[in-house]
Design a protein that fits this description.
By secondary structure, the protein is an alpha+beta fold. It has a single domain (about 20-250), classed as Alpha-Beta Plaits (2-Layer Sandwich). It has helices at about 5, 35-55, 70, 100-115, 170-180, 225-240; strands spanning about 20-30, 60-65, 90-95, 125-140, 155-165, 185-195, 210-215, 240-250. It has an eight-stranded antiparallel barrel with strand order 1-3-2-8-5-7-6-4. The radius of gyration is 18 Å and the shape is globular. The termini are far apart.
Length: about 260
């Protein structure tokens, strides 16, 4: 057995050797209804971020991001999603081999929160889905593990939701991305996992076969959007993998403040 001293003497540790390993993720993009942005932001960061996800067993980490008018102005997509909606994005990493355990807890927990009046009615789920971790992508020279990405103070992230073409899967996206140098310090792609049928009905069931790409940017992703992220999206479509339902930059929220709630 390899000792911790031996294992962590290397910066770049193979996925199979990582004691803490990302297995799946929750991707939830939400729009507060007009007049409710401030209360929504406070409710989510002060209650639901923790009570709905972070206190659950096998949660590795979580992060919150926002798209203001400036980020939304950079968005593009094929038309299958409303580009004006989805101001807030929350991401949660779930420990490998424990997705079903986590999901069973989460469904029970959120139903308890509904029954005790601790949910927030004045918001709409734009895209809320579980994804299986498919692959990690590092920029040349980067040894950043994806498991730490939500804990690092990145300038922001780029999120792509891809409507896969018939016959294409997340594996096709992985093969395409692995053959390229990608923007961002570290990124992941994922394939959809089904929502539990007993989940609250305010979370819509996705009808399309979609994949996700999340790329963490050292700089503000808007500053490299046209140079790096727009060409990547075009290349994905040109390769026949699928259509970009939405591509959007996001920046981190500032916990404990109402920052950005007046800029949505």
């Amino acid at each position: 057995m390899q000792t911790s001293e031996e294992l962590f003497s290397k910066a770049d540790i193979a996925r199979a050797d990582r004691p803490i390993r990302l297995g799946s993720l929750l991707f939830t993009m939400v729009e507060p209804r007009p007049g409710h942005a401030v209360a929504y932001n406070r409710w989510y960061e002060r209650d639901h971020f923790y009570s709905g996800c972070m206190i659950g067993e096998y949660t590795v980490s979580g992060g919150r991001y926002v798209a203001t008018k400036a980020e939304k102005a950079k968005r593009f997509g094929s038309g299958s999603m409303d580009l004006s909606k989805g101001s807030y994005l929350a991401l949660y990493w779930i420990l490998d081999e424990h997705h079903q355990d986590w999901d069973a807890w989460a469904v029970k927990q959120v139903n308890v929160l509904h029954s005790t009046g601790r949910m927030f009615k004045e918001r709409d789920h734009i895209h809320t889905s579980f994804y299986n971790y498919d692959a990690e992508y590092n920029a040349p020279g980067s040894s950043m593990p994806i498991e730490l990405a939500l804990d690092r103070a990145y300038g922001g992230l780029a999120a792509f939701i891809i409507d896969l073409n018939p016959g294409k899967t997340g594996d096709d996206l992985v093969a395409f991305l692995k053959a390229r140098d990608l923007p961002g310090d570290v990124a992941l792609s994922g394939s959809p996992l089904p929502l539990d049928p007993t989940s609250p009905k305010d979370v819509p069931v996705e009808e399309k076969d979609r994949a996700v790409l999340v790329s963490f940017s050292i700089e503000d992703p808007k500053s490299v959007w046209e140079e790096k992220y727009v060409p990547l999206a075009k290349a994905i479509e040109d390769a026949g993998i699928g259509l970009i339902a939405i591509a959007s930059p996001f920046i981190p929220t500032i916990p404990g403040t109402d920052s950005y709630t007046d800029q949505l």
